[in-house]
């Protein structure tokens, strides 16, 4: 079906960046439930990620296997504030 959202390049890009944000939160030890409960904060974080120009740096950060916060990440402070107590 040519009109399906999965065939839209921008939709695919948004999903790819959303997946990167999810991976970043998991890697940084973010409490996902606490993040979602911030409501507007979580929506803004998603928008920050979607609009971020550093997708390549983000992917490279994952490949390096770093556990340190990614300095380039526009959501770094948001993630740091929501680290889970494990």
Task: Explain the layout of strands and helices.
Blueprint: H1 9-28, H2 32-37, H3 40-51, H4 55-64, H5 76-81
Brief summary:
With 86 residues, this protein is mainly α.
Overview of the molecule:
The chain has 86 residues and is mostly helical. It has one domain (8-81). Helix content is 63%, strand content 0%. The radius of gyration is 14 Å and the shape is globular.
Entry keywords:
86 residues; mainly alpha; globular
DSSP E strands, number: 0
Major sheet: none
Estimated share of beta-strand residues:
under 5%
Which geometry do the CA atoms define?
globular
Order of helices and strands: HHHHH
Cα-atom radius of gyration: 14 Å
Q: Low-confidence parts, pLDDT < 50 over ≥5 residues?
A: none
Determine the number of helices (DSSP H or I, runs of at least 4 residues).
5
Our count of domains comes out at 1
As a percent range, the share of helical residues equals 55-70%
Kindly name the structural category.
mainly alpha
Mean pLDDT: 87
How far apart, in Å, are the first and last alpha carbons? 45 Å
